[in-house]
Design a protein that fits this description.
6 strands; Aminopeptidase; six-stranded mixed β-sheet; 8 helices; about 240 residues; alpha/beta
Length: about 240
Amino acid sequence: MRDIRKKIAKRLTGIVLAVSVAVAIVYFGAAESIENVIQTSVIKQPYEPPVIVLDAGHGGMDGGCSSMNGVPEKGINLNILLHLRQLLRMCGYTVEVTRDTDRSIHDEGIEGIANQKSSDMDNRLALFNQYENAICLSIHQNQFTDPSYSGAQMFYSNQVKGSSALAQSIQDAFVSQIQPENKREIKLCGKELFLCYFSENPTVMVECGFLSNPEEAALLETEEYQQKVAFTIFSGLQQYLATLV
């Protein structure tokens, strides 16, 4: 039985790698990117792949932060999630999402913005913790008073083993693929990052960039760059999964 599982894993590896290279050509459009994709894509597949739970931060009445052009974070988060879900499904993963439309997921009948937000967060956390074997990613955009700040940064909790390594893999993928000047380090989250801190599965809050930075915001507002961000997250996740065998 173990030999059969290894053969299945090897076959899955080839399929995933082929898909990764094909997508890289579409998203990045450069031959030199393929080498990076091969190096950061899956080398081995775990015998029992985890469920991937994706969260697009904010939604509905909660727009999150906004770019200088007035583009709300919630839509950028959602677009990246949809591209990432497609990539993962192409590779055979079971993917669950907290939302795939512009909405809050609070319980019906809840009144008041504060109460709706609390219910919304409780329901997101419930999905994060629904599966024993899951990896959870919450997609967000950053903002700061100084517009010079830029670059993706991963936040993780030390409550669950694996979160730190997952965060580092995704951070490394951002640096190697689309943000070579990014010097940011992964960072521990506190209880204020509710989903990240209280998740019972390996979880990373992916801050893809700063909407307060004009140049980075302009990129994040485009579908082309959103696709590249999604593929970058995908590559980092694959690199992490390869270490679980």
